Amino acid sequence: MRTFDGDETSSSADQLTLRRTNLGLVLRLLRDRGPRSRAKLAAELGMTRSAVSTLVGELEARGLVRIGDLERGAVGRPGTSVQLDGHAVAGLGAEVNVNHVSTMALDLTGEVVSEHKLALDAHAFTVEAVLDRLADLVRQTTADLTRRGIDPIGLTVGVAGLVDRERGWLTFGPNLDWQDVPVHELLRDRLGEAYPITVENEGNLAALAEATPGDRDRQDVLVLFGEVGVGGGIVAEGRPLRGRQGYAGEFGHMIVEPQGRRCGCGRVGCWETVVGLRALLDLAADPDDQVRDPAMAIDERLAELNRRASLGDTRTLDALAQVGGWLGLGAAMLANALNPAAIVLSGYFAAVGEHMRPAIESRLRDGVLAPDAGGTRVELSTLGFTAAVRGGAGLSLDRVFADPTSVERRPVAAGATR
Amino acid sequence: MRTFDGDETSSSADQLTLRRTNLGLVLRLLRDRGPRSRAKLAAELGMTRSAVSTLVGELEARGLVRIGDLERGAVGRPGTSVQLDGHAVAGLGAEVNVNHVSTMALDLTGEVVSEHKLALDAHAFTVEAVLDRLADLVRQTTADLTRRGIDPIGLTVGVAGLVDRERGWLTFGPNLDWQDVPVHELLRDRLGEAYPITVENEGNLAALAEATPGDRDRQDVLVLFGEVGVGGGIVAEGRPLRGRQGYAGEFGHMIVEPQGRRCGCGRVGCWETVVGLRALLDLAADPDDQVRDPAMAIDERLAELNRRASLGDTRTLDALAQVGGWLGLGAAMLANALNPAAIVLSGYFAAVGEHMRPAIESRLRDGVLAPDAGGTRVELSTLGFTAAVRGGAGLSLDRVFADPTSVERRPVAAGATR
DNA sequence: ACCCATTTGTCGTGGCGCAGCACAAACTAG
DNA sequence: CTAGTTTGTGCTGCGCCACGACAAATGGGT
């Protein structure tokens, strides 16, 4: 049984909607299961071959798919493979973080087309100045696209903080020390209206980057992102869980140790006081240790901790086990509440995660009521600090997969082969 | 922009799907916003009046709506009001709990058509015997419907424990002391295949009962259910959040006090050790107090506590404040993670909730990072122990709202007025 | 009492999109 | 080289909604 989704403001469906739906269905099938012939598409979608042919024809006219090689079967006429074509459009992602601003462009096939990053201490600049830099980066990215003849289809901006998506405001960003910033408006002023701009919470975008569309086993994902602060994002049934006001995913301030240490937010016993980067460094090293030297890059400090752990240094191992235990405790609470397929550790958690994993998994197994921890796996992110921009670019692309008619038909190039 | 929802196994959309969608759209609009004329429906859905007319005609032929009174406007021809008709179909809900089995039937308008309950100590019977009793109750309920000429459209069974929805099994039910029970199959054997039977987690159903379809402010709801054990359910964007294996909502075993008391599940410091009914009774009364007498009904014991609290008994008030504080702590953690519009207290929490509310709300405000607790309200459920069956019946009805063509056309009654 | 503006509901026509069917094209097996 | 199989593309038909026209039903003004 199928229905249109009825969550948006109710607006009826007509023939055009039907077309849009089926175009999107074909496009998503090609994304999720790879290139295949029109006949196979028809069989898998339960349509006739003729209907699929016209759909593929329209997608081709919009530059979204192209006809590829022949597909030989056992017997019979070979089919012509249809595959996603990344040369028409790309989705843009951008991020405003405390330490950097960055952008990424993904084409329809998920390939990175362009990537830019600028280290930047957000505290040292005004909001306007930071967004100026970000806009510069976005312009560089779109210039890369223009050079290749690719159209930017949308920009999704991830910011560290609480986002009001409807207005496109960052309402509360304690780490950036921003408050009530109309990010959407400020960026539109700088970048124009050539493509839609969406503002999202960084954690949600990172979580989306870890979820894989179409893969049933990667539709319910929880991302835990550790730096000095701890945040995250939730993807449930393939969709970001934002909550009523878009504030979901603020895991760092769950209170896990009521008699514990004071947190930067003013409360006592927040989860990030025991699993944040500072907690690990406090446990693993004396104040004069090099790994606590602010002048040293965080990556290098984490590498040094990994080196010590690999050499069997007990203090380091104990510290990692202790933080891992706390991490596992919180992970277990979230797993009891949400039963995700995977909890993905990102940020510094990923960097030293291999050594924390035993402690985390043991606490998770012990702490989750469902047998076998409800099937929740612990994974280390491989996306590093690009998770949010990647998720943003992916979210921008979703518009095309939901409605391929949002991409214009291209002029009929007479015998154009490339 | 609209699309078909693409989460189910991909299957393409045709004209019939289009019709189904628009029929459902009309039906849901009538449910969510009440009776209105065809012309108003057309304006709100962005369709033509003629299209709406045929849709309403078809819904009428299926007995789902009926033509009501005239609707006078300021000027012009008055419209005829179209409204949901509850006389054709009803959704069934059922529940297997430790202390009772129960059923409920809701008609399309949400009215209770039939309700049955049987007190029953599940531990004293075999699985088969308990389901025999439940099946009896369901048969009584459908008999009530048949007497009125109403068709049962589906049955949703809520069970206390972890449910594998695809197979319809209760995989793990510690409170019932059931394990790997093929509930779906056992009930189908007893009730036949006249209507589809679905098995769901009790907490999810209770949460669905608290959420209101169509109301934007009641689409993200968290239900906390307190008895001896503590459970709950999550509704996000109007849909139950079940997690990868359907185990989401097991809040009672989140570990909040690592050095605390041992829980019935074998772990230490589970939330239910500090907010479960036993914790409240331990704090509020000496062992020989009447409110701890197992012979006394729980409702009466709670009423006695409420009475003492209202009279200003400090020990009772302190106990409620302390449990309320722990309740608020857990609520804050969940609110940080999920940012619901409302946290609904159910079970015994609702019974004594008025006296715990100040403590809960204070902890919630303090413990949630988002300003003003992210807009999360604390509410007391008024549904009592019927929440799960009501949610189940509502979920059964959802099939009709999603696809009205699943209800058969009725024979054309020649001028049958009644 | 009558006319007019306004709104409602219905009917007929047209366009669009998919299903069903027929058919040519392209291949394998023997 | 033929038979059998599979693929992709026309063509026709049907269902559904948009659009426009029209009759029906009302209130307000004269």
Top keywords for this entry?
39% helix, Nucleotidyltransferase, domain 5, disordered N terminus, 13 helices, alpha/beta, DNA-binding, 16 strands, homodimer, Arc Repressor Mutant, subunit A, 418 residues, 3 domains, disordered C terminus
Topology:
The structure is a homodimer of 418-residue chains.
Chain A: H1 15-33, E1 36-37, H2 38-45, H3 49-61, E2 65-71, E3 79-84, E4 89-96, E5 100-107, E6 112-119, H4 127-147, E7 151-159, E8 162-164, E9 169-173, E10 178-181, H5 183-191, E11 197-201, H6 202-210, E12 221-226, E13 230-236, E14 239-240, H7 272-275, H8 277-284, H9 298-310, H10 314-338, E15 342-347, H11 348-351, H12 353-367, E16 377-380, H13 387-402
The first copy, chain A, binds a DNA duplex (30 and 30 nucleotides) through residues 12-16, 18-19, 22, 37-39, 47-54, 70, 72-80.
Describe the protein's architecture and organization.
- 2 copies of one chain form a homodimer.
- By secondary structure, chain A is an alpha/beta fold.
- The first copy, chain A, folds into 3 domains: 15-85, Arc Repressor Mutant, subunit A (Orthogonal Bundle); 89-195 and 387-404, Nucleotidyltransferase, domain 5; 215-380, Nucleotidyltransferase, domain 5, CATH 3.30.420.40.
- Helices cover 39% and strands 22% of the residues of chain A.
- The first copy, chain A, is built from 13 helices and 16 strands.
- Chain A has helices spanning 15-33, 38-45, 49-61, 127-147, 183-191, 202-210, 272-275, 277-284, 298-310, 314-338, 348-351, 353-367, 387-402, and strands spanning 36-37, 65-71, 79-84, 89-96, 100-107, 112-119, 151-159, 162-164, 169-173, 178-181, 197-201, 221-226, 230-236, 239-240, 342-347, 377-380.
- A 5-stranded mixed β-sheet of chain A has the order 6-5-4-7-11.
- In chain A, α1 crosses α3 and α10 crosses α12 (353-367).
- At the A-B interface, α1 and α10 of A face α1 and α10 of B.
- Chain A binds a DNA duplex (30 and 30 nucleotides) through α1 and α3.
